[in-house]
Design goal:
Strand content: 15-25%
Distance between the termini: 32 Å
Number of helices: 14
Helix content: 40-55%
Oligomer: single chain
Number of strands: 14
Shape: elongated
Radius of gyration: 33 Å
Largest sheet: 6 strands, mixed, barrel
Order of helices and strands: HHEHEEEEEHEEHEEEHEEHHHEHHHHH
Structural class: alpha+beta
């Protein structure tokens, strides 16, 4: 009862100083909860944000992948026929196998994918509004793909896949073509060269392997600006390209956009040789959404394929994630250090002002330990109130950061609050020890006589 009475009396005095301690702890808790909350949730948010700028895994026929490795002709995941040689592919995957990507263990991490058949064709304008004598081009890169294809899975679920979600950074004047139609998009550079606009019709001519000359009329529904060499190409439905090139059910590439976990030493070891992993390492790697483990699982379901992560994208994701987390952890540490300094100074000033009161307690029989516990209990109660208020405010700040930066809320994990309260407890204890030491040096007789 003695300590409770003393705590009650303490709260009624020196209100301003105690309020400052509570506010200091509250601010530190706010910053810590907000920053650590974002740190624990920022991985998926950053990956989702960065994945809007293209795919991070590509799937190719095994023979093409071997040639790319030997001669370094791979290019990045967002390149197509416009960024490679003018020769058409000679090895293919089956387009009908592409939906199997959504059947792997990490299917829900596959946010989008699009198969491609890259060929070259001659283009001739067929519009009355365009001078056909000057509207000709040979060896134009043609990309057959999906735009927004609805897939019905064996599990009963449906998903939409295609370039509509893979090329979100394109500036499109017009509308996306419909799948399995005679419509297409044309890049700004090629459109300017041919002098065509949206709504015009062009004719594609393609000499197939057997020597026949096929043609296909395409209505331009939109003109896109990709900001790179892709502006020299045309995008049309894959089924239309397959008929034009006489390559039924054929594709030579699949772009995959997946939410992944940044690589670590285990992932890098597995990417070199998965067979070198121990059983425990294998299970950890296979059941973690590393780019290499997702790529490995894609290879398992698509026969004759090699899936590889786009190193530039993976490195960017990991680098940005590490730097973002480092900044937020640094802000948390700085807030705790500032709180420790402020609490230590406020407690020292409080003990200095209450020297007579504490000396009197020691004079009537209170031990140094009892007086120290009294001050610690008082500081603990004040800090607890500040920490609870700060935790609530920090959760709100984390949500604001999530919506402003990532466009979605932050999932606050219970571990964040546990970690913050532990850190604040250690911070307050460390800050208190330096001040509590001064109590041990109090001599009641000297203090009470004003010496």
């Amino acid at each position: 009862m003695f300590f409770f009475r003393m705590i009650f009396r303490s709260f009624s005095r020196q209100f301003k100083r105690r309020l400052l301690i509570a506010v200091t702890v509250c601010l530190s808790a706010t910053v810590s909860v907000a920053m650590l909350g974002v740190v624990f949730d920022v991985g998926d948010k950053l990956n989702a944000e960065l994945s809007t700028y293209g795919s991070n895994i590509t799937v190719q026929p095994k023979a093409d992948a071997v040639v790319n490795d030997l001669y370094n002709t791979g290019g990045d995941a967002n390149s197509n026929a416009s960024g490679t040689s003018e020769s058409d592919p000679t090895t293919f995957l089956k387009e009908s196998d592409a939906p199997k990507i959504k059947t792997i263990f990490w299917a829900f991490n596959i946010t989008n994918f699009a198969p491609e058949l890259n060929i070259h064709a001659d283009v001739n304008c067929a519009s009355e509004s365009v001078d056909s004598s000057s509207c000709k081009a040979s060896g134009v890169p043609i990309v057959g793909t999906w735009f927004a294809k609805t897939l019905h899975m064996d599990s009963g679920e449906s998903t939409v896949a295609g370039m509509n979600g893979m090329r979100s950074w394109w500036k499109l004047d017009g509308s996306w073509p419909k799948d399995d139609s005679a419509q297409g998009l044309i890049g700004t550079t090629l459109a300017s060269k041919l002098g065509v606009t949206k709504g015009d019709t062009v004719t594609l001519y393609k000499t197939t392997v057997d020597g026949s000359r096929n043609k296909q009329r395409i209505t331009i529904t939109g003109i896109y600006d990709s900001g790179d060499s892709d502006n020299n190409a045309m995008y049309i439905p894959s089924s239309t390209v397959q008929v034009l090139a006489n390559l039924p059910d054929s594709i030579d590439k699949i772009e995959v956009k997946a939410l992944t976990t940044p690589d670590n030493d285990l992932a890098r070891k597995a990417s070199k040789n998965p067979n070198a992993l121990t059983q425990d390492e294998w299970e950890t790697w296979y059941c973690t959404a590393y780019p290499s483990s997702i790529a490995y699982q894609i290879e398992e379901v698509i026969p004759g394929s090699v899936a590889k992560q786009v190193r530039q994208v993976a490195a960017l994701q990991g680098d940005v994630l590490q730097k973002t987390q480092a900044v937020m952890v640094l802000m948390t540490v700085l807030s705790l250090v500032a709180a420790a300094i402020a609490v230590a100074n406020l407690m020292a000033a409080s003990i200095g002002e209450r020297g007579s009161e504490l000396a009197l307690l020691k004079a009537i029989g209170a031990t140094d330990g009892a007086v120290s516990r009294l001050m610690l209990a008082e500081t603990a109660v004040i800090s607890l109130v500040g920490a609870i208020v700060g935790a609530l405010l920090g959760s709100g700040v984390a949500q604001i950061v999530g919506h402003v930066v990532f466009g979605s809320g932050i999932t606050m994990r219970p571990m964040v609050f546990v970690l913050v309260f532990v850190l604040l407890t250690l911070t307050v204890l460390i800050a208190s020890f330096s001040s509590i030491r001064s109590i041990l040096g109090l001599k009641p007789a000297e203090v009470l006589h004003g010496r």
